[in-house]
Amino acid sequence: MSGVLQRLKQFANSPQGRRTIEQVRRTASDPRRRAQAQRLFGKLRARRSGSGM
Fold first, then answer.
1. CA nearest 31: which of 39, 19, 20, 43?
2. What is the pTM of this model?
């Protein structure tokens, strides 16, 4: 598992990783996108709790 974390750290420190992180931050700060994500997570929670797990 530490190999996966090491790869994530390397990606986050790369130029492509920095661009991706900045794009995710901009998207997460958009109220419309945030509401869209909350609806999606709500559906996933409802589906998970309805299955009896």
1. 39
2. 0.57
- Do residues 33 and 27 touch, judged by C-beta distance below 8 A? yes
Half-sphere exposure of 37 (CA within 13 A, CB side): 9
Given a contact cutoff of 8 angstroms between Cβ atoms, the answer to whether 30 and 38 are in contact is no
Mean pLDDT of the chain: 90
Nearest-5° Cα angle at 41, 46 to 49? 20
CA distance 48 to 26: 29
Please name the amino acid found at residue 40. Answer: L
Residue type, 45: R
